[in-house]
From TrEMBL:
PANTHER family noted in UniProt: BETA-GLUCOSIDASE
Sorted UniProt keywords: Carbohydrate metabolism, Glycosidase, Hydrolase
Record-given protein name: Glycoside hydrolase family 3 C-terminal domain-containing protein
Hydrolase is among the record's keywords: yes
Species in which this protein is naturally found: Vallitalea pronyensis
Alphabetical list of Gene3D superfamilies matching this protein: Glycoside hydrolase family 3 C-terminal domain, Glycoside hydrolase, family 3, N-terminal domain, Immunoglobulins
Domain Fibronectin type III-like residues, every copy: 582-652
Protein origin, superkingdom: Bacteria
Length: 746
């Protein structure tokens, strides 16, 4: 294919090259018939196919073909199951092939900086390692079927407010360790066919025109060879975009930018070499999409069953006092809440799927047990309705257990705008409180795409976080409530008690078209750990109907170089009476660091299934990145020599096993000393240490007999003082200072 692409490239006219730099319409690329260049179709995902059923319209708003609606990204990530995500990817690839779609526009790998981001339902996690691992296996699954993916939105697109104009201001280390790391492993190891760049500016430059982002980092540092496509309508300056490495502008622009490209080449503002690089990647994608196309069908019932099984693996049991769950079919159960019959199963916006089937929880529970139902509230309103509440209260009084379906309506969160708060509608909150006054056995089932405040939590016995469970989410909920499936989901994000607890609260969504990520590295659990602040539910948390015991942590080496690997082994046992699946989580802590680092960070995880009484050894392999931070000075990941704790357990707040290992750095970072270096730093150098001790000695002599400073205070004060300021105490002149600096920097 490569030789064919080169041959065609050499035959294209300037006008044809320019035309290939943008789409033909909303969903397809442009063909060049005379040279056999095909047009391919791309389509929205990420949790299902959203291909338009009729002729493509210029806004992409026509009805989409029926497709399997899998759980949304927020739900999928809560599975913490790489293999399961891969199966979802395979199914999505099959459906895309069936509809002649060459590239599925997903997954969304942006970090959940704030619970208010209106598109959080589409993204995976607040943690970059978990996010990138889930994205990687999604991509591998889809692309195993000969369908490309488009990991998005690259980069630092973490809000919907002014998403097309906001300038995201984030320092290099935070960018590398949090916001880019969410994409990095997925791009390097899964090799998505395309990367979709974001709308926003990043540190002053729009992402589609950002040479630093698209060429220096994505291509030069990470070795990416695929195509970069703009988010729809994101391109600001098409000529600058080509220079930056932005290949395909979507959707089509009616030829406006074709002319700009032609003029830029003719007047010398754009080189033919830069244009050819972009066109070559567009041609490669078009031919790859065509060559990988195949005749395919899929079994709708099998995909529906998969969607149900996936949903049941993802939903998170947050509370289960007195083991009120699972229910049994002999109990008298009241099902209350409009969401039980009118499910909210997916997010709003470009990822909205037309489901093949749709299961609601009410009908699925009715298949298992006889129930009483009351609507309880109006999903289209926020204020309580006295009649609906009264009916619900009567239903609750007459039954042993009350299952209340509540959550966030579609209008509360969607692509295009952010949430204003973390609260559920007032009528739903008051309904729960009213029901808890007449029945103590309240079970709450949530349907939401991001965290909510739960002022009613102490008044209920159980909470099942159903998130947005896809077309079969209702069936999954029924099976989980009645114990036909055992909950095994874990939160991929922290639930704060209230919005102001979130680290981004003071700087979201920004002012004057700028948003500054002043919390730096401390996103999600990293912040709550640093503040020793207890959230409502911690990152990685989730209950089961069985119990697990962690024992016997071992490392195969006590000391390694940063170029080596270490194997960590732990034993996990099911100590309960039913089969269950546990997510084993490994975190790493740098015990002593010269730079600011989070208290601990997720570096590995595994999901294991255990029968009652069964034990399994889980083995994790850690390498350099598990211990490293991004060193801005050397522009690379760096490990400081020292001791590291390895922590293993069931959540970020429950890590019963720990051991330590020493890691030795193989990279010596030469420190540069100047006249403004502080004495504390200079004392780390053998020559400098002698000079510093002389200075401290003279300071002690000077203040001897004085009440101003004792010896410790002198050293504390002196250690933070600059060399030039302390010259007098060292008896140095400018020549002495220059000679000393030459020795220190030799």
């Amino acid at each position: 294919m490569k030789e064919n692409v080169k041959n065609i490239l050499s035959q294209l006219t300037l006008e044809e090259k320019a035309s290939l730099c943008s789409g033909q319409d909303f969903w397809t690329t442009k063909p060049i018939d005379r040279l056999g260049v095909p047009s391919i179709m791309v389509s929205d995902g990420p949790h299902g196919l959203r291909k338009q059923a009729v002729d493509v319209d210029h806004l992409g708003m026509n009805e989409s073909v029926p497709a399997t609606c899998f759980p949304a990204g927020v739900t999928l990530a809560s599975s913490w199951d790489r293999d399961l995500i891969g199966k979802v990817g395979v199914a999505l690839g099959e459906e895309a092939q069936t509809e002649n779609v060459a590239v599925l526009l997903g997954p969304g790998a942006n970090i959940k900086r704030s619970p208010l981001c209106g598109r959080n339902f589409e993204y995976f996690s607040e943690d970059p390692y978990l996010s990138s691992q889930i994205a990687k296996h999604y991509i591998m699954g889809v692309q195993s079927q000969g369908v490309g993916t488009s990991i998005k939105h690259f980069a630092a697109n973490n809000q919907e407010y002014k998403r097309m104009s906001v300038d995201t201001l984030v320092d290099e280390r935070t960018l590398r360790e949090i916001y880019l790391a969410s994409f990095e492993t997925a791009i390097k190891e899964a090799k998505p066919w395309t990367v979709m760049c974001a709308y926003n500016k990043l540190n002053g430059t729009y992402c589609p025109d950002n040479y630093r982002l698209l060429t220096e980092i994505l291509r030069d540092d990470w070795g990416y060879e695929g195509l970069v496509v703009s988010d729809w309508g994101a391109e600001d300056d098409r000529v600058e975009g080509i220079k930056a490495g932005m290949d395909l502008e979507m959707p089509g622009n009616g030829g406006r930018n074709d002319k700009r490209i032609i003029d830029a080449v003719n007047n010398g503002k754009l080189t033919m070499e830069a244009l050819d690089k972009v066109v070559e990647r567009v041609l490669s994608l078009a031919f790859k999409g065509t060559e990988e196309a195949k005749e395919m069908t899929f079994n709708k019932e099998e995909h529906d069953t998969l969607a149900k099984n996936v949903a049941s693996e993802c939903m998170v049991l947050l509370k289960n006092d007195h083991q009120i769950l699972p229910l049994h079919n002999k109990q008298k159960v009241a099902v209350i809440g409009e969401l039980a019959k009118t499910p909210r199963f997916q997010g709003g916006g470009s990822s909205h799927i037309n489901p093949i089937y749709l299961h609601n929880a009410y009908e699925e529970i009715e298949k298992i047990s006889s129930i009483c139902y009351a609507q309880g509230y109006d999903l289209q309103a926020d204020e309580p309705c006295e009649t609906l509440v009264a009916e619900a209260i009567q239903c609750a009084r007459d039954n042993e257990v009350v299952v209340v379906f509540v959550g966030l309506p579609d209008r509360y969160e969607s692509e295009g705008y952010d949430r204003k708060h973390m609260q559920m509608p007032k009528n739903q909150v008051q309904l729960i409180e009213a029901l808890s006054e007449v029945n103590e056995n309240i079970v709450v089932v949530l349907a939401n795409g991001s965290p909510i405040e739960m002022p009613w939590l102490n008044h209920v016995r159980a909470v099942l976080e159903g998130y947005l469970g896809g077309q079969a989410g209702g069936a999954a909920v029924a099976e989980l409530l009645y114990g036909m499936a055992n909950p095994s989901g874990k939160l991929a994000e922290t639930f704060p008690i209230k919005l102001k607890d979130n680290p981004s609260a003071l700087n979201f969504p920004g002012k004057e078209d700028k948003v500054s990520y002043q919390e730096g590295l401390f996103v999600g659990y990293r912040y709550y750990d640093a503040k020793e602040m207890k959230p409502l539910f911690p990152f990685g948390f989730g209950l089961s109907y069985t119990t697990f015991e962690y024992t016997d942590i071992q490392v195969d080496k006590d000391e390694i170089a940063d170029t080596d690997q270490v194997n960590v082994t732990v034993t996990v046992k099911n100590t309960g009476d039913r089969t269950g699946r546990e997510v084993v989580q490994l975190y790493v802590r740098d015990k002593v660091s010269s730079v600011i680092r989070p208290d601990k960070e997720l570096k590995e995880f595994a999901k294991v299934e255990l029968a009652p009484g069964e034990s399994k050894k889980v083995v994790f392999t850690l390498s350099k990145r598990a211990f490293a931070y991004y060193h801005v000075g050397i522009k690379d990941w760096h490990v400081e020599t020292g001791e590291f704790d390895i922590l293993v357990g069931a959540s970020s707040a429950n890590l019963p096993l720990s051991t330590s290992i020493k890691v030795n750095s193989t990279v010596n970072i030469k420190k540069v000393y100047t006249r403004n270096s502080v004495l504390g730093d200079i004392a780390q150098h053998p020559v400098g240490a002698q000079v510093v001790q002389q200075i401290f000695g003279k300071m002690r002599d000077m203040f001897a007999g004085s009440n101003l400073f004792d010896g410790d205070a002198i050293e504390e004060m002196g250690s933070t003082s600059t060399l030039r300021a302390m010259m007098m105490f060292g008896g140095m002149d400018e020549n002495d200072l220059e000679n000393l600096l030459e020795q220190l920097n030799a």
